[in-house]
Design goal:
By secondary structure, this protein is an alpha/beta fold. The protein has 17 helices and twelve strands. One of its GO terms (molecular function) is GTPase activity.
């Protein structure tokens, strides 16, 4: 591979897409003047490699490599012989496409070459392009950045494109597609237009109220509209971070005492020997993580060191392993609390008619011994969720918790085993299984899927989800400005007959600034308001060629 083209083959991450700016500051030289090229299909041997060119000289590039006849029929696949513009040596037989702007991905003249995917072919074409005057290698994300500046997409759509490229599961793909197709763009633009309309009414009242050409109830209608908008934004923010969790992946941690089958459980769920399993208690000393796909949801599953209850660990390595186990449990979205069926049976004499009560008491004592904390550093809350009416037998959870009764194969008494299995049937978050035989695994996977649905939602059935920390930050600021306006509006006297018009307008002028700030924060999400620094951060993780 030619050293000068090594950068063309490096992978990156894509974090943004289209933006519709009402006030674009096109100061970047990547948008004005330069014609760029890059390999868009990724490095390595493949059947077909796609090389993209975009900019004002795309037409000249196309003619030099493939001939002028292609220009007469845009958006049509042409099979052509590509020749080096200088030596006229044949480079390849390729499919060539011509997309005159603005009807192209970037909004400017673009051409694409679909060549054979051998490294020599790709390097030869890239070298030929690099020798052409005024044609430069693209920076990561530069094609998408141009699409943004040319109004082909807004930032929320760009981020949806990034998420789609990096989606590893079905649910991630669906959520990314919704965002890329403009669902958030439509929602946020609707809110922004509401704010603009209400701000216009406020400013009209300030400018023309003395002329008595403004309806008396105009400010009441503005307050009503903004109150509804405030409620809508609050509901959008109160989503439990489901979209963000689906985008980034759910974190689950297996915890329990030593030798209860935690590593066996990890291997069983992952369907491979990811962790070492022995009969010796304390085999696992460090955290072992595996990334898996469960029914379309991304899950990072961590096996941890066994946490000793009454007998504290004395080994320095084991002490560190236990500390890491508790730390992982503290930040987990799902806790898989694993216990040995024999532990429960030894806790007290089995009583058929009191098994639920005894089980609850056992869990309370067991969790207390493990000394697990939540994300706030407080004692972990847990609950038993009834399958019958959805009620719980304890306080609500910050994270989902599934109690796993393992080693059911060692229970010899059939009646006791049946009663234990009934616990799994009675509660949504109790699973009874044997990691050795696989008995009970389908029930555990179903309950794990239900927990994932609670934590991530369903992109098919829900309104557009918040998937970016950046969006949440700006929406929170927007809501704060909106609530400032409404608070000041609530302080206005119901009857302002005795209040001079000048004083009313002065108060409203101050309130109007809150609405302008709210509009500004919404614009930061979609790209109506942007700076070069913001755009650089968003587009810097794009792949070269995208």
């Amino acid at each position: 591979m030619f050293p000068q083209f090594k950068e063309f083959f490096s992978f990156g991450y894509v974090k943004s897409r289209h933006l519709i700016l009402s006030c674009r500051s096109v100061s970047s030289d990547s948008v004005a003047g330069r014609t760029i090229f890059a390999l868009s299909s990724g490095r390595g041997k493949c059947g077909v490699a796609v090389i993209r060119v975009s900019g004002s000289q795309s037409r000249s590039v196309l003619c030099a490599l493939a001939g002028e006849s292609i220009l007469s029929k845009p958006r049509f696949a042409h099979l052509r012989t590509l020749r080096d513009p200088q030596s006229r040596e044949i480079l390849d037989r390729a499919i060539v496409l011509w997309f005159p702007g603005p009807k192209s991905f970037t909004g400017e003249d673009t051409c694409e070459f679909q060549v054979h995917g051998g490294l020599a072919v790709v390097s030869g074409l890239l070298e030929a392009l690099g020798k052409m005057p005024g044609v430069y290698p693209a920076d990561p994300g530069e094609f998408s950045k141009r699409a943004f500046f040319n109004g082909s997409m807004d930032l929320t759509e760009a981020e949806g494109l990034s998420d789609l490229i990096h989606a590893e599961t079905e649910m991630q793909r669906k959520q990314a597609l919704h965002q890329m197709s403009g669902s958030l763009h439509v929602l946020y633009n609707k809110w922004r237009n509401t704010l603009l309309q209400d701000l216009a009414h406020v400013e009209a009242y300030i400018d023309f109220s003395e002329d008595e050409n403004i309806e008396d109830d105009v400010m009441d209608r503005v307050d009503e509209s903004l109150t509804k908008l405030s409620n809508d934004i609050q509901m959008h923010l109160a989503d439990g971070c489901r979209g963000q969790r689906l985008r980034d992946g759910v974190r689950a941690t297996i915890v329990g005492e030593p030798n209860v089958g935690k590593s066996s459980l990890l291997n069983l769920i992952c369907k491979k020997p990811a962790a070492i399993v022995t009969a010796i208690a304390g085999t696992t000393r460090d955290v072992v993580e595996q990334y898996i796909n469960i029914s379309g949801y991304p899950l990072s599953l961590a096996d941890t060191a066994g946490i000793r209850g009454e007998m504290p660990a004395s080994d320095v390595v084991e002490i560190e392993g236990i500390a890491r186990a508790k730390k992982f449990a503290q930040s987990a979205d799902i806790i898989l609390l694993t216990i040995n069926a024999s532990q429960f049976l030894m806790y007290t004499e089995w009583q058929q008619n009191q098994n639920v009560k005894i089980f609850k008491e056992f869990l309370e004592q067991h969790i207390s011994h493990l000394d697990l904390k939540n994300s706030s550093g407080d004692k972990l809350n847990w609950c038993l969720k009834s399958n019958d009416d959805g009620s719980v037998l304890n306080s609500t959870l910050e994270s989902e918790c599934i109690v796993i009764i393992n080693k059911i194969d060692l229970v010899e008494d059939k009646n006791v085993k049946k009663s234990l299995c009934n616990l799994g049937k009675s509660f949504k978050n109790v699973a009874v299984l044997s990691c050795l035989t696989g008995e009970g695994l389908p029930d555990l996977m179903l309950k794990l899927k239900l927990s994932l649905e609670i934590l991530c939602g369903n992109p098919n059935m829900e309104s557009p989800a918040l998937s970016q920390v950046r969006h949440r930050h700006h929406l929170t600021d927007c809501l704060a400005s909106l609530q400032n306006y409404l608070r000041k509006a609530g302080e206005r006297p119901e009857s302002q007959n005795n209040v001079p018009i000048e004083a009313q307008c002065a108060d409203l002028a101050i309130c109007a600034e809150d609405l302008r700030r709210a509009i500004h924060h919404l614009g930061r999400i979609t790209g109506h308001v942007s700076t070069d620094q913001i755009l650089d951060v968003i587009f810097r993780d794009f792949c070269i060629g995208k």
